[in-house]
Every structure is written in structure tokens, then in C-alpha cells.
Specification:
Elements: H1 11-21, H2 24-30, H3 32-46, E1 52-57, H4 64-82, E2 93-94, E3 101-105, E4 118-121, H5 123-130, E5 135-136, E6 140-142, E7 152-158, E8 174-182, H6 186-190, E9 199-206, E10 221-223, H7 226-235, E11 242-245, H8 252-260, E12 266-271, H9 274-286, E13 292-296, E14 321-327, H10 345-348, H11 351-365, E15 366-376, H12 385-394, E16 398-400, H13 419-422, E17 426-428, H14 443-447, E18 454-461
Parallel strand pairs: 4-7, 11-12, 11-14, 12-13, 14-15
Antiparallel strand pairs: 1-3, 1-10, 2-3, 4-6, 5-9, 7-8, 8-9, 15-18, 16-18, 17-18
Helix pairs in contact: 2-3, 7-8
């Protein structure tokens, strides 16, 4: 159900996206009216959260049913502490096709009454609240002048990034995301030498209710969007292989690959930001995975010019890996919920050259007969289907191969790819089912379509 305004974008970005979704090939395939309808549904659904929470279970450590039962018990305790209801039940269902996924329904939108005291948070923080998070102090932009710990406040998300940090009131574009209790005084949040840390507002009446996973079974239950879990299965890692994750932070997919291999083999994770490498190592340690080797390195430079080089870390000799995951940096326009983006069109379109540099390195590092999976969390043609068309043209050794599981839609027309190749691509397109997948439909039916926007292509190096 649509209760929020459509995602707030700069006009030039909206027009660009419209040209993508109303390109000539799409118009020929579905007609102008349907194409325009899909585009407007996309703008609406992006500002809303999916109707479920997806959890990747650490089935390398315990059976799925055992994890499901432990998770239900932990969340039941959490709800009993925050709910006055006599009976507290938690619905957790296994995904029908993906053996290490559990899905939980999100309750909402709920009838929550706005209060007089308003706290304003950034759009990213507001999105996290809609998916079950509390408000952490760094996300707070404005609060009432005399706010004290214990005060009941309404939380609003700043749509256009115009609220000044420390504001006592804000009249710009904002949306209500729920009510909470202040855990800190205003002075603690804004008037200290060191930036405030920890929970600033504990949400008690969120507009969309879903469990908080903060500290809940950290080694057994890993919050991850469903398409991101699908990527690991599509890559198809096998025990004993050497696999490269080129843009690995924060390490969710890296650890999933290692788990799917039974922690037998080597998963090399690269990222160019040092503290993100620490996060990958922490995640691997928490999930008891020994096969992950993380290095701080620029993946565009990860191919060694010396084929005889024998080092554990990057750069690597050509054809060093059995499989490569290129989960590329992208414009992120498929993320949900996303209330608003202040990015310019230049910023949105800046990723294609970087993605191609990474592609060049990935193909060189892949062994003959190896598998390359390319993925993004965006909805543009330039970063998805156009990159596939470019890669097939640039690297004659690459060919598209079927994906398993294939639960998303096929690729979008517009990049000149023939229908048989579009069918091999996997594009998660929430706009195709937005407001059609009724809340009364069985949860597993909603789970495959009510996702973030995401794209996956699988190549074989011949």
C-alpha cells in the first residue's frame, strides 16, 4: 500500500530514469501506457520497505530448523519486553527454493498517531527505521530544544537533505516514520566534543514493525536482502575452489560464498577501504569461517604484470581464480526503502567506466572454464544490461549461462540484447508486482517479487 510520496530525486535524475524505463525496445514490447505505469510504480515502491525481512541462516553451523527455532525464541523474548499483548507469536518461514533463507513478515503501515515533539533524521536513517532499526545518534539531525532522555517523540525523515544538524525545528519536506523514546538528552547528541554513539531514539511505535536484529544470534542469523543471497547461489561455489570477491565490503556475500563451500577452499576478498576490510574479517570470524582472506587493495589493479609472481595477496597472476564475483559499485537506485537521493545526474552516471575497469580485471583473473557473476543493486540500463552487451562484445571468451535459482524477472529490453539472452539475465523488478502482490498473498509468494531492485548476470569463460 502506498502511503509515502514517491522517492525524491533531482528532476534531471527523474527524467533520466524515465528515459530508461520508456526506451524504444520497452515501448515496442509492452506499449507506452504500460511502460509509463511501471515507471511511476517504481518511483512509488522505492520509497517503501519490502513486506518482509530476509535472514540468511548459517546452515554451515546448524540445521535451518534449529536456527529457525532459536530465532523465534529470541524474537519472542524481544517482543514480550516491548509488547503488552498476552500472547506473542513470531512467524518465521523457510524460503521454498533457497535452503538457507528464512523470511519474516513486516507489519505495516500501522495506524500510529503523530506527537507534538519532532525529531528529524537523515533519509538513510529513516529508511533503516522502516526496516526495524532504532535511531542511532549519528543519524539525528534535529530535535526539540529541551529534549531529555525519556521523552516520547515522533521521528521524521528528511527527504531532501536540507535539515541543518542541530536544528530545533524543520519545515522542509519530511515524512513520518514512527514514535520513539529518547535515550539521550539533546545536549548529549549535539553539544559534546566527541560524536555521540549508540541508540539515540528507541522506536516503540514504528510505522512498519519488524524485529530488531541488534545482537540477535549474530553467528547464526545474518540480515541480507534476498537478491544478495541469490547471488551467492548463482555463483555456485564448490569445496576446494579459489574464489575472488572483488568489491567485498561489508562481507555478507564473501561469507556466504565461504559457507556454501563448507569453508573448504579459499575466498579472497578485496576492498580499497581499510576499515571495511576489518569489518569483513570480523564478520568471517563471527561466522567461524577460516577460508576468507581479506586484503585492502584496489581491484582495478589486481592483475599482476608478472605471471610468475607467487604471493598470497594481490596483485594476482592472470587466471588465478575458479570463480569471480564482481558485485560492482553502482548508483544504488534499487535500494528500498529510499525516501530520497540528492545525487546529481553526473554522479548517477559516473559508475559505468569504473565497472568496466573492474570487468577487465575480472576476466583476466578468471581461469578458462571459470564462472564470472556480475551484480548491482541499481535499476539503470547503463549499469546492467548495457554492461552485459558491452562485455559480450569486448570479451569473445565470455558467454551468458543460465542462473540457478532464477526467481527474478528477465533482463530489461533496451540494450540490444536478443530475447534468448535477456531470459538468461535476472533482474529483480519490484515495480512489476507493486500493489498487485496483496498483503493477503502467502509470504513466500511475495518474497520473490517484493524485493529491492537488483541485477545479476552469469558468464562462463570459454
Amino acid at each position: 500500500m502506498s502511503i509515502f510520496p514517491r522517492i525524491s530525486l533531482k528532476p534531471e535524475v527523474t527524467e533520466y530514469l524515465k528515459s530508461v524505463f520508456l526506451n524504444k525496445e520497452v515501448l515496442t514490447a509492452v506499449g507506452h501506457q504500460e511502460a509509463e505505469h511501471r515507471f511511476h510504480k517504481l518511483l512509488s515502491c522505492l520509497s517503501h520497505p519490502p513486506s518482509y525481512t530476509c535472514v540468511r541462516a548459517s546452515t554451515h553451523l546448524a540445521p535451518l530448523e534449529e536456527i529457525r527455532q532459536q530465532l523465534a525464541e529470541e524474537l519472542r523474548k524481544q517482543l514480550m519486553c516491548s509488547s503488552s499483548a498476552e500472547e506473542v507469536s513470531v512467524q518465521i518461514l523457510p524460503h521454498p527454493r533457497i535452503a538457507d533463507v528464512l523470511i519474516l513478515p513486516v507489519e505495516g503501515p500501522r495506524p500510529v498517531k503523530q506527537l507534538g515533539s519532532e525529531v528529524v533524521v537523515g533519509a538513510q536513517c529513516g529508511g533503516a527505521v522502516l526496516r526495524g532499526a532504532h535511531v542511532f545518534a549519528p543519524g539525528i539531525l534535529g530535535s526539540p530544544k529541551y529534549m531529555k532522555a525519556g521523552d516520547l517523540v515522533s521521528v521524521f525523515s528528511d527527504l531532501e537533505g536540507k535539515c541543518t544538524r542541530g536544528a530545533t525545528s524543520f519545515q522542509g519536506k519530511k515524512v513520518f516514520v514512527g514514535n520513539g523514546v529518547a535515550e539521550m538528552d539533546r545536549s548529549t547528541i549535539f553539544c559534546t566534543d566527541e560524536p555521540a554513539r549508540g541508540i539515540g531514539i528507541r522506536m516503540v511505535e514504528p510505522l512498519y514493525r519488524s524485529p530488531s536484529f541488534d545482537g540477535v544470534l549474530p553467528s547464526l542469523a545474518f540480515l541480507q536482502n534476498l537478491p544478495s543471497v541469490v547471488v551467492g547461489h548463482v555463483l555456485g561455489p564448490r569445496p576446494g575452489e579459489r574464489i575472488l570477491d572483488m568489491c567485498a565490503a561489508p562481507g555478507g556475500k564473501t561469507c556466504h560464498i565461504a559457507a556454501l563451500m563448507g569453508d573448504q577452499g579459499e575466498v579472497v576478498a578485496l576492498d580499497r577501504i581499510r576499515n571495511k576490510i576489518d569489518r569483513i574479517r570480523q564478520n568471517a570470524q563471527m561466522l567461524h569461517l577460516q577460508s576468507v582472506k581479506a586484503h585492502c587493495f584496489n581491484s582495478t589493479l589486481s592483475v599482476s604484470s608478472d605471471p610468475a609472481q607467487e604471493t598470497e595477496g594481490p596483485p594476482f597472476p592472470p587466471e588465478s581464480f575458479d570463480r569471480v564475483l564482481l558485485d560492482a559499485p553502482c548508483s544504488g537506485l534499487g535500494q528500498r526503502p529510499n525516501m530520497g537521493s540528492t545525487w546529481s545526474l553526473k554522479e548517477i552516471c559516473s559508475y559505468q567506466p569504473l565497472q568496466r575497469k573492474l570487468f577487465h580485471a575480472a576476466v583476466r583473473l578468471l581461469k578458462k572454464g571459470g564462472v564470472l557473476v556480475y551484480s548491482t543493486c541499481t535499476v539503470t540500463l547503463a549499469e546492467n544490461e548495457e554492461q552485459v552487451a558491452w562485455a559480450l562484445d569486448t570479451f569473445p571468451c565470455l558467454s551468458l549461462v543460465p542462473q540457478e535459482p532464477h526467481i527474478g524477472a528477465e533482463g530489461m529490453p533496451g540494450a540490444g540484447l536478443p530475447p534468448e539472452q535477456l531470459r538468461l539475465l535476472q533482474r529483480f523488478s519490484p515495480e512489476l508486482s507493486w500493489e498487485q502482490t496483496e498483503i493477503t498473498a502467502p509470504l513466500p509468494c511475495r518474497a520473490d517479487s517484493d524485493t529491492i531492485g537488483f541485477f545479476i548476470a552469469k558468464f562462463l569463460k570459454n
